[in-house]
Amino acid sequence: MITAFLSESRCGRAVRSLRALFAALVASATFAGCASVEPQAYSAEKPVLDLQTYFNGTLVGHGMFQSRSGKVERRFVVTIDARWEGNVGTLDERFEWSDGEKQRRVWTITRTGAGTYTGTADDVVGTAEGRAAGNALYWAYTLALPVSGRTWHVRFDDWMYLIDDKVMLNTAVMSKWGIRLGQVTLSFSRK
Question: Is residue 152 within 8 Å of 145, Cβ to Cβ?
Fold first, then answer.
């Protein structure tokens, strides 16, 4: 009888601990979402980023992918041939990875309003959404990423910051089910 009571008591404490942990995780996810930066926070920053001006012509990017532990897993060079016709731009990206793999992604970007953009590409699930203000662009999308013979839908949250008329820095956090998988960091320069 006493053993049964102790077991139930321990079980009750374990359930309460799990409930408290779950509540803390939900609260932390909720508050983390509230604390994120909006593009408008950069509205006074110069130089002002105009996608149609910056992504026009040939650009070269040098970057790396880091796992969530921070280890650099892969490095790459990307060459982008970009052009615009009115409010629609085409960014033809050609990647060369440090392990010899080559990839190509062709974005179609549409300016939908003042500082707002949408984008599509063959390996993007649905439509990418972008908002620009000042020198910054927030770009969010889901990528169909091949991993070990399977395709994962991975969310990318990109921030691009124009440093001057030639250089832009980009950080992109990759996540799945809200869990951070890693980060891509790259620097673009216009030729």
Answer: yes
Per-residue model confidence as pLDDT tens digits over 100-119: 999 999 999 999 999 999 99
On whether the pTM is more than 0.70, the answer is: yes
Rounded Cα gap, residues 106 and 56, in angstroms:
14
Number of domains present in the structure of the chain: 2
113/159 same-domain check: yes
The tens digit of pLDDT for each residue in 135-157 reads 999 999 999 988 889 999 999 99
**DSSP assignment of 132-160:** EETTEEEEEEEEEEEETTEEEEEEEEEEE
SS3 115: coil
Give me the domain span that covers residue 24: 2-36
